[in-house]
């Protein structure tokens, strides 16, 4: 195993609820995460964002750009006429048909970046997307344009969720979801790198969020066929009523957190010759 092969582990959905956020902070304090991705349109964001600012010095902190959960930060009469974001399936259809109201999308990108920076008092270390919307046609170009205009090229990295076919085949688990995201995000890495943004070399962490399955066994598949800068997403957290009211993914968040805090996690990394690291350091 090459000595410089690392794994960046990113917890998604910070700010979604108090319980989810506190669970992520537990994993962060234990040194089990190297990145945290924040939902800034959540009512929890300002307060939980300030807590993350105090405790996130040892991890990359980024924007979990969101167009599918909750409410936009400003009016979007064409995209969210009822005041709430549409489901991801509708966003995908609009993107593939080139029917997205791009001026509204661009404005929301700027609002979410502004809100991240206002609370964190700095620029994001990276940007990704809730349900991978950042890789969709139209949205990806608008996001890269917004980040370029803020002079983030060379300073922030972007999540590339489109992994290589050979790696998807070797991991086997959740291949259908991985292939679907790969197809929808085709061309994202090239566009990002063309504008000076670093990306991860490989990507894993897809799940069907089935509480009846062993998350540790699933995580082992995420470590197969890693690139030199391997990125794994995860969704740890505590379940509370606030989470239940917003998202169907509940019990498995507790299971993920328990695994990350257990001795089994570092043992698994050591066995594979992988080391946790921040992707910003690996790409710098």
From TrEMBL:
This is ChbG/HpnK family deacetylase. CDD domains: YdjC_like_3. The keyword Magnesium applies. Keywords: Carbohydrate metabolism, Hydrolase, Magnesium, Metal-binding. GO terms for molecular function: deacetylase activity; hydrolase activity; metal ion binding. Its cofactor is Mg(2+). PANTHER family: CARBOHYDRATE DEACETYLASE (PTHR31609:SF1), YDJC DEACETYLASE FAMILY MEMBER (PTHR31609). Pfam families: YdjC (PF04794). InterPro entries: Glyco_hydro/deAcase_b/a-brl (IPR011330), YdjC-like (IPR006879). One of its GO terms (biological process) is carbohydrate metabolic process. The keyword Metal-binding applies.
């Amino acid at each position: 195993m090459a000595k410089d092969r690392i794994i960046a582990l990113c917890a998604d959905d910070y700010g979604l609820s108090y319980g989810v956020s506190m669970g992520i902070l537990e994993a962060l304090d234990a040194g089990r995460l190297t990145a945290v991705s924040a939902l800034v349109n959540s009512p929890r964001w300002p307060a939980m964002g300030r807590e993350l600012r105090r405790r996130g010095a040892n991890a990359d902190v980024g924007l979990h750009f969101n167009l599918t959960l909750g409410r936009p930060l400003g009016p979007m009469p064409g995209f969210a006429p009822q005041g709430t974001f549409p489901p991801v399936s509708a966003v995908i259809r609009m993107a593939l048909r080139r029917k997205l109201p791009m001026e509204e999308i661009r404005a929301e990108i700027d609002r979410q970046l502004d809100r991240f920076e206002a609370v964190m008092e700095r620029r994001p270390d990276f940007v990704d997307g809730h349900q991978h919307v950042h890789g969709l046609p139209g949205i990806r170009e608008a996001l890269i344009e917004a980040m370029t205009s803020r002079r983030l090229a060379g300073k922030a990295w972007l999540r590339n969720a489109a992994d290589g076919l050979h790696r998807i085949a070797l991991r086997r688990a959740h291949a259908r979801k991985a292939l679907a995201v790969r197809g929808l995000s085709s061309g994202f890495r090239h566009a990002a790198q063309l504008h000076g943004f670093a990306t991860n070399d490989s990507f894993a962490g897809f799940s069907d969020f089935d509480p009846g399955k062993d998350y540790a066994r699933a995580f082992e598949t995420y470590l197969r066929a890693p690139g030199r800068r391997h990125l794994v997403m995860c969704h740890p957290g505590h379940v509370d009523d606030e989470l239940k009211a917003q998202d169907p993914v509940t019990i498995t968040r507790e299971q993920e957190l328990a695994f990350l805090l257990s001795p089994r996690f570092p043992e698994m990394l050591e066995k594979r010759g992988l080391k946790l690291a921040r992707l910003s350091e690996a790409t710098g």
